[in-house]
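Structure ticket #2291
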Amino acid sequence: MSLTSADIARIANLARLELQPAESERMLTQINGFFTLVEKMRAVDTAGIAPLAHPVATIQDITLRLREDRVSEPDNREANMRNAPALKHGLFLVPKVIE
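Resolution: structure written out below.
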């Protein structure tokens, strides 16, 4: 997959960016370079390879430092609910924004 100058102009318009011609050309080169890299990565056969939790795990055994799963904040539900403009069944009521 590769983009054209028209694609870059459309993307810039959607992002509300004003690109100079030199910037547009540089973006085209960089994005197409990215797509080339992705295509190379997709071409690699990864069947039977287990996913890694960390890239260093390929060269040494590592133990992830995970914190103990415990409650660290007090329950402030009642205090938070007092600030709500509208409640129903213990839940915040908000205006409907999607029809």
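Closing remark: The longest strand covers residues 87-88.
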